[in-house]
From TrEMBL:
<dbReference type="InterPro" id="IPR052174">
    <property type="entry name" value="Flavoredoxin"/>
</dbReference>
<dbReference type="GO" id="GO:0016646">
    <property type="term" value="F:oxidoreductase activity, acting on the CH-NH group of donors, NAD or NADP as acceptor"/>
</dbReference>
<dbReference type="InterPro" id="IPR012349">
    <property type="entry name" value="Split_barrel_FMN-bd"/>
</dbReference>
<protein>
    <submittedName>
        <fullName>Flavin reductase family protein</fullName>
    </submittedName>
</protein>
<dbReference type="InterPro" id="IPR002563">
    <property type="entry name" value="Flavin_Rdtase-like_dom"/>
</dbReference>
<dbReference type="Pfam" id="PF01613">
    <property type="entry name" value="Flavin_Reduct"/>
</dbReference>
<keyword id="KW-0285">Flavoprotein</keyword>
<feature type="domain" description="Flavin reductase like">
    <location>
        <begin position="14"/>
        <end position="172"/>
    </location>
</feature>
<comment type="similarity">
    <text>Belongs to the flavoredoxin family.</text>
</comment>
<dbReference type="GO" id="GO:0010181">
    <property type="term" value="F:FMN binding"/>
</dbReference>
Length: 202
């Protein structure tokens, strides 16, 4: 039995209790590539839902061209993720970001990452990321005047680095997969496996 301890009301500035980092690659109407780290993402079946600031280039590209790759970095790629963190594809940099962000046209080069062609969408995959999800935008929710947009996209192709795939299956080897998590603006790896769900397949 777990001991029940007292709770208290708090006012945290963000509610980032812990989600995986994704690198979203997109292109604009003239096929210029952009790449941005996000942590607001979740999955329902083959649907991925992304939470994106309206002042970024990523949402503009998604509304213009309707495609992306959700690239999942592992813990070893934290320095590359953090190299992308202060960059935006928007020029000029929006005033509210001007003190801490700079415009960058080649984010792959800025982070030492390598573009790799996708199969079904125009934006490139990130070769160094162990997992790539090619996706088509289905709907963008929320008014354009809002601070954030909620993007619903269909995952149409999944790529996983072969050393992470259990041979002869489509299962990811959980002993080898080391997703990068974002917890209150710190980066973490996952801890111990503390049990399997009754629906776990292996
Ligand atoms: C680890 C991490 C997680 C982030 N999560 C999000 C997020 O979920 N949604 C978002 O809009 N921005 C998020 N950001 C901030 C964007 O990366 C940042 O606004 C960036 O300038 C967007 O690039 P873009 O304007 O080229 O699209 C995150 C940044 C980092 C480093």
């Amino acid at each position: 039995m777990t001991e029940t301890l007292a709770h208290q009301a708090i006012e945290p500035s963000v509610l980032y209790f812990g989600t995986p980092v994704s690198l979203i690659s997109t292109v604009d109407a003239s096929r210029t590539t952009n790449l941005a780290p996000i942590s607001s993402s979740w999955y329902l079946g083959r649907t991925v839902v992304l939470g994106l600031g309206r002042n970024g280039q990523t949402i503009r590209n998604l509304e213009a061209t309707g495609e992306c790759v959700v690239n999942l970095p592992d813990v070893r790629l934290q320095p590359a993720v953090e190299a992308l963190a202060p960059l935006t594809g928007v020029a000029p940099v929006p005033p509210e970001k001007a003190d801490r962000f700079r415009h960058e046209t080649d984010k792959f080069a800025a982070a030492g990452l390598t573009p790799l062609a996708a199969d079904l969408v125009a934006p490139p995959r990130v070769a160094e990321c162990p997992v790539h999800l090619e996706a088509h935008v289905v709907q963008v929710h929320g008014p354009k005047s809002a601070e954030f947009a909620i993007v619903e996209a269909d995952v149409v192709k999944v790529h996983a680095r072969s050393d992470l795939v259990i041979e002869g299956t489509s299962h990811i080897d959980l002993e080898r997969w080391a997703p990068l998590l974002y917890v209150f603006r710190h980066y973490f790896g996952v801890g111990d496996d503390v049990g399997r769900s009754f629906r776990a397949e292996y």
